[in-house]
């Protein structure tokens, strides 16, 4: 069966995951994390991709991004990926592939899932046992969202701005979302939809997306579209 192309639609937020080959480390030092982030900051404006959130783990990373063009996201990922592999292989005196195949991504319904996705990403280091609190992890956009530092890479999504009328209100509201966390069903929906490449959204959202692409946006099941489980942050 032919492999489906990635679901990439301009103007919508995309959740992206890329893993190291055989789950091997893709970052070996603080300098590696900084180099990757610098590459992303340099290339994202070039390819007109807005970065809303990120988290870099030792053997994979997540991005939440909105491309302005149909080919912006694939070109960005290719440019950053190739440059980083050259850098990493040279520094580690290794050769060959670094990534576990192509990156995985999908479109998410912003009103339902964008903030949930940000929380899911920020809590990755906590779930992995690397830190006790998300704010203690240096390689994510969480510190920027809390006002602890300014990250030139980040363009907050409109839904983040709607959390409050002042920076303090937005930061406090988002910190509370992270403290509340997400449940295992929400976590699975965000992970599985991205790895499979199926859109994550309610039926009306999915139906609207399908009008803008010939590529199927949800898996066929008994002739009826499958709606994603509803995620509500309380």
From TrEMBL:
Transmembrane segments: none
A molecular-function term among this protein's GO annotations: transposase activity
Biological process per Gene Ontology, one example term: DNA transposition
Location of the Transposase IS200-like domain: 9-124
Top-level taxonomic group: Bacteria
Gene3D superfamilies on file: Transposase IS200-like
Protein name as it appears in the record: Transposase
Organism classification: Bacteria, Pseudomonadati, Pseudomonadota, Betaproteobacteria, Burkholderiales
């Amino acid at each position: 069966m032919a492999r489906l192309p990635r679901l990439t639609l301009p103007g919508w937020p995309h959740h992206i995951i890329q893993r190291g080959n055989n789950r091997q480390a893709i970052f070996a030092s603080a300098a590696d994390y900084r180099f990757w982030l610098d590459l992303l900051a340099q290339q994202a404006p070039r390819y007109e991709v807005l970065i809303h959130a990120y988290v870099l783990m030792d053997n994979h990373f997540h991005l939440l991004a909105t491309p302005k063009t149909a080919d912006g996201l694939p070109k960005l990922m290719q440019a950053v990926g190739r440059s980083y592999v050259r850098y990493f292989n040279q520094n580690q005196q290794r050769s060959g592939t670094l990534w576990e195949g192509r990156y995985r991504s999908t479109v998410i319904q912003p009103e339902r899932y964008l903030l949930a996705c940000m929380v899911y990403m920020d809590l990755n280091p906590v779930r992995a046992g690397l830190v006790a609190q998300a704010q203690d992890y240096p390689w994510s956009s969480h510190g920027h969202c809390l006002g602890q530092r300014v990250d030139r890479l980040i363009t907050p999504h409109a839904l983040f701005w709607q959390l409050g009328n002042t920076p303090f209100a937005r930061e406090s509201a988002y910190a509370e979302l992270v403290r509340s966390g997400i449940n295992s069903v929400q976590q699975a929906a965000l992970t599985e939809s991205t790895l499979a490449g199926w859109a994550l959204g309610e039926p009306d959202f999915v139906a609207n997306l399908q009008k803008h692409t010939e590529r199927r946006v949800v898996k066929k099941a008994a002739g009826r579209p499958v709606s994603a489980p509803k995620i509500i942050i309380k």
